[in-house]
What we know:
The structure holds 2 protein chains of 2 kinds. By secondary structure, chain A is mainly α. Chain A has helices spanning 2-14, 17-35, 41-52, 57-82, 91-102, 106-139, 144-156, 158-161, 166-181, 206-221, 244-265, 271-286, 299-314, 316-322, 328-339, 346-351, 353-384, 389-408, 411-429, 435-457, 469-501; strands spanning 183-184, 191-192. In chain A, helix 9 crosses helix 20 and helix 11 runs parallel beside helix 13 (299-314). By secondary structure, chain B is an all-alpha fold. Chain B is 75% helix and 0% strand. In chain B, helix 1 packs antiparallel against helix 2. The longest helix of chain B has 25 residues, at 3-27.
Amino acid sequence: METLSLLMGGLSSALxxxxxxxxxxxxxxxxxxxxxxxxxxxxxxxxxxxxxVSFDGxxxxxxxxxxxxxxxxxxxxxxxxxGIPGDAPSVxxxxxxxxxxxxxxxxxxxxxxxxxxxxxxxxxxLLLTVLxxxxxxxxxxxxxxxxxxxxxxxxxxxxVLGGTNVWKGFIALALGLWIGMIGLDAxxxxxxxxxxxxxxxxxxxxxxxxxxxxxLGQMFASLTEDGEAAxxxxxxxxxxxxxxxxxxxxxxxxxxxxxxGFVVGILPGVGATAATILAxxxxxxxSKTPERFGHGAIEGVAAPEAANNSASxxxxxxxxxxxxxxxxxxxxxxxxxxxxxxQPGPLLFQQNPEFxxxxxxxxxxxxxxxxxxxxxxxxxLAATVLISRALxxxxxxxxxxxAVFSLGLSVTDVAxxxxxxxxxxxxxxxxxxxxxxxxxxVLGPMLERGVRRTLIASQGDMSVFFERPITLLILxxxxxxxxxxxxxxxxxxRERLLKAAT
Amino acid sequence: xxxxxxxxxVSVVLLLVGGGILLAAIGYEYxxxxxxxxxxxxxxxxxxxxxxxxxxxxxxxxxREIVTDVIGGAEIGRVCxxxxxxxxxxxxxxxxxxxxxxxxxxxxxxxxxxERPVTPRxxxxxxAVTAGTIALGYYVFAHLLSxxxx
Lengths: 502, 150
């Protein structure tokens, strides 16, 4: 009952013109970003970060979150129409969505993707509303040593998020930790790694790094990719509505996909892509006619799209309740929270309940609004892929320049974002994962403060980290996570060697 | 450029960066009065960086990776050209404000990325898009958000 009354309060706060405009703005931008191949939700949130930072705090987060789940809606458009996934979680939608389009059934496929996204999003936001307070209450028993252990666990996610080469993952993490240290030391005020620059005394703004590494870096890496020439037919409004028969066929896949998406999405480091793969696999395995999958089975669109959107809400639970970003996009969202002066974690629910419940209210509204916007805008969104990169990228570069400049009214920030763009490009080309870098930038300063404060209070006695049971549990989980990942890597290497030998 | 060569160059650069972090950390005070000082965290980060780069290099050498991936000249050329245009825009913006240099950057970037041969029709579209974006950007940032762009 308490949750319901809090949610009702949040919904009424979310229905103000400012909040509705912020949600509309974020979801439309997210839809466009999701449609564009090469720019995922992380890039979209990062690019919009310097723009929304001047909004009111809750409106800013509502807009950024709108970009996130809007991009999940939009990613299916190019997957279905062109066979090009708009972002990584949309990859599974290509498998059956594109064959459906080639059979002349792009309308029903798009309609199902919109409906599945709505169902997955609705279930995801319902579970988010119900579970997040419970998780936050449990997390209130966390003290400084527990939070420090949690930061170490979050950083050890590099073993999961670090791609195929774990060493490169840790290298990216170390770089991120170093970048996070640039500026005045928080405890004694000593300038560190500022190279004599007064501009760097305040450190490097998070959105400068995120825009550079994710936005510009990805764009530099896709400069020479040729887009397939699209041949689109016009789609009427009616043809984009889901067919009742398709909904009946896919009802269990919609529910299963949503649940799988939520359960997998809540796990830090796993992400929406894994959720869509599992949802698709389960839909195929449980189907009475699995041979249809891969050739235009509507369930093959329904399951991954439901999982995709459910996972995007689930990923916000560890972010808001524990302060652990479990994916690239939530890491950037976390930066957004910090920029508006809010510390994610269990105290967020206690100290800023209005913010949290208003934000949850905007999720319900945004999810509903997206259905109508997507159906209305899909023909226009589909036309966006026809725009040449030679025209599109200059537009994005210009917006990035204005937006980054507006952060600190300094061209130095724009130059820094370019530098990080080059870094992001090199990392992408050499298979250095970018997410650990962001983890290091965001979590590193918190970890350093936590460790130093704890050790100062205990006069340098390290045993303080091993005295509390929850801390020990979290540290044990960290060791297990690293151990399992190392074992998995060794096993995969052995299999590769055996395969090569035979 | 061969990817393996670039990877090795980057590894050397990272080793130097890690070494620099370690040296700086020693100068920042590691453990004054038995509690972690400003050099504590940088020391361990520098060590982590150096250690991981060495492990990665050793791993690659032991696997005797045969990497045939190449970053084509066209890609390197385009990236370098666009980075140069962006950098020139930043330099010009220090003296001329952000609006005109950004407009110039848009046109030059579009020309670098355009398919060859560049047609007058494309140039027309590019100029129209540039004018529209700058106008909209100026309205949103300078007018609505009061950001001094000029």
